[in-house]
Automatic annotation (TrEMBL):
Contains a large N-terminal NADP-binding domain, and a smaller C-terminal substrate-binding domain. The active site is at Y141 (proton acceptor), K178 (proton acceptor). NADP(+) binds at F10, I11, D31, N32, K38, R53, L73, G74, A75, R76, T77, K145, V170, K178. Pathway: Nucleotide-sugar biosynthesis; ADP-L-glycero-beta-D-manno-heptose biosynthesis; ADP-L-glycero-beta-D-manno-heptose from D-glycero-beta-D-manno-heptose 7-phosphate: step 4/4. HAMAP family: Heptose_epimerase. Catalyzes the interconversion between ADP-D-glycero-beta-D-manno-heptose and ADP-L-glycero-beta-D-manno-heptose via an epimerization at carbon 6 of the heptose. Its cofactor is NADP(+). This is ADP-L-glycero-D-manno-heptose-6-epimerase. Belongs to the NAD(P)-dependent epimerase/dehydratase family. HldD subfamily. SUPFAM superfamilies: NAD(P)-binding Rossmann-fold domains (SSF51735). Pfam families: Epimerase.
Length: 322
């Protein structure tokens, strides 16, 4: 059996699909299972068992001998949430329990970290584990992810294989439930569909023109392919960046969305909310050399390829097909 936590969410549900495509059907999905996410994101998936996240460790104590691998992708991901207790409970302490269980039962583990750990990027975006204790995230979400990375590296007891993945700006199908935390592509599509235009944040940094803020946008299909590779690789434990390796502008993202929809571009700018300005990242770009060095050689989707596939094959049809 393969366990996927946060399984009704965005990346995890896409991973369940990818596992099914590879004929892995004994999948145990763990989540709090809100009705909407379960009915939409897990609809049609081949799943062995649904386990509530609050009873997962009791379930694991009884079934660990059958568990081959754990993908721990469940987390609170709201970067605008500032209640540290929420992140301590769901991101830090729950992840520690998963780690300790994997150590006790010798189960290999892949877990979700985040590029939010890099903060403003003053130390760069290299997944060198020696700089992780020096990173200064810009919000409690990033702190929670970095705190766990630091804790994991400090442990003497480790799963025989483990990997933490610093996800950059992931986009793709099954993110509709994320609200304001969904990708800019998702929001752009809906704005264009409704109004024929879309809005981007105006730059408040002298080095960046409006719309020229840059992010490493990575398509979720690449993310789950890397997860599959690590499950099959099971060596070279450590913390890895997971982005496309190429920063692109929000303007390029917007123009590609218009093109994929067959609509003439109409872009307006609005001020970045004042409460976000001090914590706004103007540039992120994953250094992907570490993952490449252990044998992952599949090319990543370009922004053009990913946006076209997402918009035309998932957002524009009446129903998601994944």
């Amino acid at each position: 059996m393969i366990v996927v936590t946060g399984a009704a969410g965005f990346i995890s549900s896409c991973l369940v699909s990818r596992l099914n495509q590879a004929n892995f059907n004994d999948i145990v999905v763990v989540d709090n299972f809100s009705v909407a996410k379960k009915e939409n994101n897990l609809k049609g998936k081949k799943v062995k068992e649904f386990v509530d996240r609050d009873t997962f460790f009791e379930w694991l104590d009884k079934n660990y001998e059958e568990v081959e691998f754990i993908f721990h992708l469940g987390a609170r991901t709201d970067t605008t949430e500032f209640n540290k207790d929420v992140f301590d409970l769901l991101n830090l302490n729950y992840s520690k329990k998963v780690w300790n269980a994997c150590c006790e039962y010798q189960i290999p583990l892949v877990y979700a970290s985040s590029a939010a750990t890099y903060g403003s990027g003053t130390l760069g975006y290299n997944d060198d584990e020696s700089i992780i204790p020096l990173l200064k995230p810009l919000n409690p979400y990033g702190d929670s992810k970095n705190d766990f990375d630091i804790w994991a590296l400090e442990q003497t007891a480790k799963p025989f294989f483990w990997a933490g993945l610093k996800f950059f700006n992931v986009y793709g199908p099954n993110e509709y439930h994320k609200g304001k935390m969904a990708s800019v592509i998702f929001h752009a599509y809906n704005q264009i569909k409704e109004k024929g235009s879309m809005k981007l944040f105006r730059s408040h940094h002298p080095d960046f023109a409006d719309g020229e803020q840059m992010r490493d946008f990575v398509y979720v299909k690449d993310v789950v392919d890397v997860c599959m590779f690590l499950m099959q690789h099971r060596k070279n434990s450590g913390i890895y960046n997971l982005g496309s390796g190429k920063a692109r502008t929000f303007m390029a993202l917007a123009l590609n969305t218009f093109e994929a929809m067959g609509v003439e571009p109409n872009i307006e700018f609005m001020d970045t909310p004042e409460n976000l300005r001090d914590n706004y990242q103007y540039f992120t770009e994953a250094n992907m050399n570490k993952l490449r060095s252990i044998g992952y050689d599949k090319p990543f989707y370009t922004l053009e390829e990913g946006v076209k596939d997402y918009v035309q094959n998932y957002l524009m049809p009446a129903e998601y097909i994944n």
